[in-house]
Amino acid sequence: MRWLLFPWLLVWFPFTASADVFRDELESVYRQWRDAVVRKDAATWQRATAPHRRMEVRNRIVSEKCAFPAAVFDLPAPPPTIDGLRFLESKQNGPTAKASYFGKVDFGVGGKPTDNLLVLSFVRGRSGWLYDRADFVSLAALPDVRKELAAGDLRYLAETPEAKPDGVVPPTPIEAPAAKTIAKVYAFCPGREVRVQVNKISRHRFANAQESEVVIGGAVDGVNEVQYTARRLEGSTGKEALAIRVYLMSEIAGVKPVKVYEYQVAEGGAVQPSGTGSFTVDAATAAKLQGR
Fold it and tell me: How many CB atoms lie within 10 A of CB 202?
């Protein structure tokens, strides 16, 4: 889960008639966006989605050699509905806004939903509000917060920066080329924040994580540049292990990914705060991806 954080003036809309109109406007945008996803309506999806988010989604899809916009709608289940959830509050900070809901958020993947928090984010476009993203906050480990929200006590939202709009609209990324070779960057970074950049196009942030992300634009033929930074997070010992890797992904069933770059430090080792490396995609690499 990722949050966009920025200290800024917060404008809070109290529960007045104008606040009701503001809430209705945000909810209308989300319902329009969700309905477009359900109906696989690409034109409406593009109109209802923030420009930077549209381009991020587009770049990720073509970087995995999938068809855009068709792959936008290739989901295991529709986005969660806000019908039946308890509206908590809506907040605006300049050109950004958030609407928070509490209840049984159902992602349609089985199991019995429990009471949790759903925060919808929006940005203002030329013609009105546009949908940006949804963040699901599990309250399984926060039973007291769950009780507070159920009782209408919103202290958790007031005290949590993640539930506040930051006032900053992210820039729209450049349009990345469709990938020729699918690549993924992987990081294992307990106790650290790691930022990785591949070919000065694909930017990634990992914090206290073990995960991978697709490389935007894929790997190119010839030399590919990898840059990284690593810094300790509060509470870490500074002795945790670290691994940063780039893999090329085969499109042939049964052929394993090919590791082409690695920076690894064992537990207790000295981690360089930054570094630059590279890997090469050549005929030998292509043969490995073909299983030869």
Answer: 25
Q: Closest Cα to residue 185, out of 237, 244, 142? A: 244
**b/e per residue 96-119 (b: at least 16 CB within 10 A):** bbbbbbbbebeeeeeeeeebbbbb
* pTM of this prediction exceeds 0.90: no
Integer Cα distance of 201 and 176 in angstroms:
8
**Model confidence at 279: pLDDT above 70:** yes
Least confident of 153-157, 160-164, 209-213: 160-164
CA distances (Å), origin 280, targets 52, 67, 222: 31, 27, 5
CB 183 within 8 A of CB 289: no
Distance between CA atoms of residues 228 and 194, nearest Å: 7
Burial group, residue 228, by CB count within 10 angstroms (0-12, 13-18, 19+): buried
Contact 193, 233 (CB under 8 A): yes
Task: Record the tokens describing residue 13, joined without a space.
Answer: 């809309």
CA distance 231 to 234: 10
The phi-psi region of residue 259 (left if phi > 0; otherwise alpha if psi is between -120 and 50; otherwise beta) is: beta
Q: Which two tokens stand for residue 227?
A: 């840059």
Distance CA 77, CA 34 (A): 11
pLDDT the model gives residue 197:
98
Return the bridge partners of 135, or none. 119
Q: How many CA atoms lie within 13 A of 162 on its CB side?
A: 12
Q: Phi and psi of 198, rounded to 5°? A: -115, 125
Tokens of residue 184, six digits: 């993924």
Choose among 109, 111, 165, 99: nearest CA to 140. Answer: 111
Please name the residue that has the structure tokens 């990938």: 179
Q: What is the pLDDT of residues 55-94, one digit of tens each?
A: 999 999 999 999 999 999 999 999 999 999 999 999 999 9
- At residue 11 the predicted structure's pLDDT band, cuts being 50, 70 and 90, is very low
